[in-house]
Amino acid sequence: MDLSNHPVLIVMAIAVVSSLLAEIRLGTVPVPVVVWEIVFGIALGPQVLGFVRTDKLLEWLGRVVGLSALVFMAGMDLDLQKIKGRPLSLAVRGWTVSLALAVSIAGLLHLLPSVHAPIIVGLALTTTALGTFLPILCDSGKLDSKFGSFVVAAGAAGEFGPVIVVSLLLTPVFGAWQEAALTLGFVAIAFAAARIALGLRPPKFLALLERGMHSSTQLPVCISLLLLASFDVLSERIGLEAVFGAFAAGMVVGLTNRGEANRLFREKMEAICFGFFVPFFFVMSGINLDLRSLLQSPQSMLLLPVFLEFFLVVRGTPVFLYRKDVAREERWPFALYSATASPMVVAIASIGVRTGHMRSDVAAALVGAGLLSVLLFPSMAGSLLSRGARAAPTSN
Known about the structure:
Elements lengths: L6 H15 L3 E2 L2 E2 L2 H12 L11 H22 L2 H4 L2 H24 L8 H8 L4 H11 L5 H24 L6 H24 L3 H11 L5 H19 L4 H14 L7 H25 L3 H5 L2 H19 L11 H11 L5 H11 L5 H36 L1
């Protein structure tokens, strides 16, 4: 049987094998499942072993459905009650510092003859993959800690800020002022949806949802997925990136489903998104990495470690704002989590290539550096946190 004709089978097999490998510790910390999925995507993709050939269905599942599901869960797990106040204000200030650093670095890169997209590169450097390391924090028990609240807030700023700027500057369908007005209108719709969901809770409707949760209809899950699809379409129609709508939909659903009473619902959403949809995105990220452009260009090979270092500098430097809030041994892990590049890097680089502002080999170096940050930084952060936890009892 030619397995290349069954890409869904291969992706699901990768998801299972990656989950098993994630249980194996390399040193002191398990390698996150997303790392294995990206590695297998690269290895089995058309540029290495050729077991998986991309088609329209697989591309749609990865770039649209998988990415939307990942960002949706990031929005759903974002508890504004936990990060409001100092965590959120520091996160906004930190991302502003990152944006200033990114603009400065982009200006320097503009002096290089082959890097002609300073805005695109700068925006990519300000991203943070909240959806990528959120499950890692959850599995390690750090999500509900003080450290977790500051990291999640910083990740939310790094996830949400670039999406807004990209939607306004790089993919505008209308004029700048119209785009800004439409963005504010979309935010107002999201807030209105949340208020309606929180305020209108007639007993009969709640009973219907409860029955649906335990029947084959799965009504609450279907409503949530409908909201996700609706916000995706709405955001695209007004010229925003689809992930903007996915994040907003996740926040609305998350606000209305807090507490232990809704634990079963959240577990079902996690099972659907992380168990099926999200692996397509990470596997496709590995498959779509343009290795040929990267390996055949000496300049791209040189840019790869440079971009990787810039990710750490741009998103890691704001850690100095947290010196009163984050313990000394947690600052490097904080910087590494913040510097884990968001999937938006792939979208931003694609926009650059599509509009002719960025060469494909430079885009490959940028995407490759983003993927390397996902491969390396969360594992390094987890290792440092584990080492600090073991050292704490000794020092006491």
